Amino acid sequence: MNEKIRIANVTDDVEVQPWTRAFAAKDAEAFAAAFAEDVVLEASALRRPVEGRDQVKQVMGAASGIYESLVFTSEVSEGPRSCIEWEARAFGGKELRGSTILTVNDQGRIVRAVIQHRPLDNLLTFSAELGRRLNGRIDPGHFHITT
Predict the structure, then answer these.
(1) pLDDT tens digit string along 63-84?
(2) How far from the centroid of its chain's Cα atoms is residue 78's Cα?
(3) CA atoms within 13 A on the CB side of 120
(4) What 8-state DSSP symbol labels residue 117?
(5) Bond from prior residue into 119 cis (ω within 30 degrees of 0)
(6) Which of 13, 89, 121, 131 shows the smallest number of beta carbons within 10 Å?
(7) What pTM, to 2 d.p., does this model score?
């Protein structure tokens, strides 16, 4: 279903979907509802992938809370894969831009998410903050450590 209702974090060029709704809600459970049990998250903010619904929902719930604002600006989809570009602000207005590639299974659940952030300095700050917020819940070896 091509849903084009207006929500705050989506331009007219992006279809509203569970992923964009979860970011708008900044809610780990909203992310979990979109994921397959065996989902894999790869990201430039991660040193290695995070696997499994429970782990990935924690990462995405924490990550969405870091952004002061995030707008999905464009989308291209073909078959089970979508690429969504976005613009965000965090850390007192620092700009982040990036893209997210989502792959869904036959049931429409996300099985793979690949997230790219830029620029590098803000990416490294994001990774370190994500690790701080997930301390004790996700292995710290996934994140950039500031010295």
Answers:
(1) 999 999 999 999 999 999 999 9
(2) 20
(3) 0
(4) E
(5) yes
(6) 121
(7) 0.90
